[in-house]
Amino acid sequence: MKDFTNAIIECVPNFSEGRNMATIKHITDEIEKIEGVRLLDVDPGKATNRTVVTFVGNPHDVIEAAFQAIKMAAHHIDMRTHTGEHPRMGATDVCPLIPISGITAEETVAFAKKLAKRVGEELNIPTYLYEYAASEPYRKNLADIRSGEYEGFAAKILKPEWKPDYGHTFNERSGATVIGVRDFLIAYNVNLNTTSTRRANAVAFDIREKGRQKKDANGKIVKDASGEAIWESGLLKNVKAIGWFIEEYGVAQISINLTNMHTTPLHVVFDTAAERAAARGMRATGSELVGLVPLQAMLEAGRYFLRKQQRSTGVSDSELIRIAVMSMGLDELSPFDPQKKIIEYCMQDTTKKKLVDMTVTGFAQETASESPAPGGGSIAAYCAVLSASLGTMVANLSSHKAGWDDRWEEFSNQADKGQALIKELLFLVDEDTRAFNGIMEAFGLPKSDEAEKATRKAAIQAATIYAIKVPFRTMQLAFECFELTREMAAKGNPNSVSDAGVGALCARAAVKGCYLNVKINAQDLKEHPEVKPLIAQAEEINAAADAKEQEVWNIVLGSMK
To answer: What confidence tier does 1 reach under pLDDT thresholds 50, 70, 90?
Structure first.
């Protein structure tokens, strides 16, 4: 079964209360009680009498927070007396889950169903599934499910086709709830060098999926046989757009809702809007993101614009984000702070001390201290990081070497592989120390009776097996570094061949160091069914490392004759 420990989903429940701030606070307090969940936004509306709440976290934690919030809303909100301009059907009207990273929409559906089942069975609130989680195609659309609103649900729920997915008795106080999975919505504005709303609208109609009403040569709307206006589709799917004038900045903008960034990426929206603006005599001067954006959208944008320049995409995430910000002018109207605008960065726990975030001196002194961790495992992992970094450096230098313009993509692909290795290996630098600490924590468990002794023994074994798996995985990745350094020594920029050689030396040190860690941690578990095959594979990797290093060494020395 897939581990979703590091996955992130967003939850955006809409509660039918936008005036009583005490009630809203009761609800959001329940969300903030759940460890691992971060409350990002609370947006109440008095006229709509509705509050939109946004929070993110691990899928397991998010659905627990959502359940507690729905439970609190049912306690405080009485739909029998509720009024508001926005369509609604329950105290918690709708509760979408949105996959952000480390999890697909299909995988998120399982969490939506689990949440909906709890709401229906434990809170006795009729619950429907919608969008990706819908149990029937006709239930995908929220508006169709909500049709009739709260006032019509006592009768609607009795119709066989509208039997709720969970909780089958109408709850007069709480109404009904819709839970599902949808794509992330990016609210995004493109700035134009004009003050004309009409011209901004023209570009909006060009790009939005809905398009515009068809007109004849005289400017009259063309209608079909039934008298309905004929629409001409726009260029981009899953894009809604309209033009408006922002008095604060004195510019017209194309206001855009991007409902599926996988179908139409953010950078495609910007480039297409810029092209259509240019065709109409205007220029897209920049853009702005309203709210938060997934990291993936920014990284894809950075790679896209680097490819347009025929530059290597194998650079750090921070550089990809910087390129994306510059290319789309995301800082034109206000500064773009990745730590505040990118969901995954907002989720980071900055209180936890990481080895990889230390200075080189700090890491060295931390290792040199009398504490047993970090030790050889973390250092071996960092040797592998250095190997991958050197191979990536040579690839990036080769990608823009004068006279090699036609080979930029070849080296860019190698640099991408290097960056992937760097990311996972950096994680393993700290993970090796965490694994060691896990063993120490297991040894510290109580052992006063037989039950506690058995629990302690099982915990020690589980922690030890994990402490074997971490350096073994590092071994595998370090061994992959040989291929990168060999390719760069043989085909890369000849001025950097010695760097590739040093990279191979670091890879060998990493493999050998991790091998020692696997061996020492596995001393008492050599015949364990999980451990035995790892030891055998570790022996093979260790034995092959010398020849791989020698191969790169020979290439490097051969080029220096």
So the answer is: low
